Amino acid sequence: MSRIFIILSLIVLAGCSQSLDIQLEPEVSVVLSDDREKVLRLTSNDKAYTDLNQWLREHNSDWYSTSGRYPGGVYIKSGDDGIQVTETHVVLYSTTGSEPKAIYIQTHEKDELTEVRNIGQ
To answer: Is the pLDDT score of 42 beyond 60?
Structure first.
């Protein structure tokens, strides 16, 4: 019985992931979690921008629905999207309402997105 439950759980989890096509605007704003007053700008000429853009292209599948708030990291505003990069996750936010709303999340490897996570240091 427990094997059936595990198999069904895996099927449900696999069916919950989404594929997303996220493209960065030509210029994005970056807010650091430890200094929210400081807003930086990134363009396609910046390594952190190209690293994030490449990662988003390569990881367009396996996004999971989420909600709530996630502490730490950097927050990138690109058009109607907010992208938070923490030590272990990338969280996508909808910014069309009065407050950003977390909608999708994906885990990243520890050695990925280090340039993005270290912006401002």
So the answer is: yes
